[in-house]
Structures are given as C-alpha cells and as structure tokens.
Fold:
Amino acid sequence: MTEGDRSGGTDRGVGTGRLRERVVLITGSTGIAAATARRASDEGAAVFVISRTPEHAQDLATGLGSDRPAGWAQADLTDETAVDAAVAAAVERFGRIDGVFSVAGGSGRRFGDGPIHELTAEGWDRTLELNLRSQALLARAVTRRMLAQDPTVAGSRGSIILCSSALAASPVPELFATHAYAAAKGAIVSLGTAMAAAYAPQRIRVNVIAPGLTATPMSQRAAGDAATTEFVTRKQPLVAGFLDADDIAQAAIYLLSDESRAVTGQVLTVDGGWSVTSASATATP
Structure:
C-alpha cells in the first residue's frame, strides 16, 4: 500500500525553500517516493534516490531538472552491503544526509503472503525482507552517518521517516488478508519508536508515516477490483477514493523540515479518514 505512483496526479508548484541546503535521501523511484523527491527538490533540497530499478532512479533524478542537484544509486535494499554502498555514494555526492524517507517496499502475495493459516514460510520471510529488513538496514546505515556529522545551524543531525501502512492498525480482513505485510508494517512503528527514543539526545528525529490506500502501481490489483474501489470510496471519505501520492509527499516534507523540529517518535497517519471511518467491506452501495 505504499510504493508506487499515480504519476503527474498533482501539479508541482514553487516551493517555499523549507529544505534549502538540505540533503534528502529517498528509497524507491515511483509513486510516493517520486512525489516526495519532486516536492523535496521544489523545496530546495538536494535529492538522492536509491532504487532497485536503475532506469527508474535515473529518470527520476534527471527529471527533477538540470538546475537542481540530484543523484541516484541502484541497490537491493535487502542486501546490507548494497545498502551501505548506496548510502556512502549519497554522502560522497553531497557530503552529508539531512533527511531520509524510507518508502520502498511491496506486496508479498507473489511469495505466498496471505492469512496466517495459508501463509507459506517463504511468503513470511520474503515479505518481511522486502518491507522490514530493507527499512532496518537503511535506518542503520543513515543513522551511523548522521551520528558522525555535525548538526545543522538549527541543531539537527537529521530526520528519518519510516513508512508503515494504515493496515498495521486498521485491518480489513475481507479485502487485505496479508498477515506478513501487516506484521512488517506494525514492526516498523515499533522500530521507529525505539529509534526515536535512542537518538533524541543526539538530535536525530525519527517518525513514521502510515498511508492509507494510495494510487500506485502496487495498488493496481486493488484498483481493478470493483468491490475494493467501492469500499475505499467510503473508507477514505476525505478524498472519496484512493489517495494521491502527493498527499503522502506533503506530509513527508513537513517531517523532513524544521517545522517539525520538536516532533519525534510519532506515527502520522495519512489515510483520508480510513482509520476513523466505519465502513463494511461487504456492504452494498
């Protein structure tokens, strides 16, 4: 429910410079990741993209504009050597890392994720690798870097955002019975809370964004199902359907900027009303 894109769904505007002179690292190269990269660039940040698909990463970085500093690296985020090398490449390119949005993840259905009584061992392992191990390895690498760098003028060594899902706390078993995915996204919340507590004295902030159902390539299966789209229209009434990737990106910019300098250890749920709206997945229109 996170990585992917409804590309071009929201026009890019002129930013206010909230991320001027900041270096922002983003994992993933489509959807929420792409929307955030564009917003961060508009706000003055130098953007570094890490993706397992080099063509997408390069296209995103170069598409930000020739006058905007950007870089990219290809990496399998479940491979610790590759993650460390990609983060090192970002530091070599820009000298430091001020903000991180760890977006990349995906569905484990193809590996055997499902309800626990049907879940395969491979489905469990691969889904947690894709959605939890990847974020933990990235968090380790960037935290090590932030601890070693001097604070900004504002006193920050960095802001890290992990990506969870509304499904971690607000399940819909009739439509989204993927228990390994839910477990991974729930663990991300715990990881973010533990990190926030550990590194607050070093002025590193850690928060989590939990998106609702967002229009992305990953959500194409759901978007093609009439029952799911009808349900989402009722479950996310603030947007009357699927969220746009830019809805999540704008929340990320807030958490990356000094506007949230006193915010850490929080879960920002951006779900169009999903978590507070009562709607049965089996109701008729």
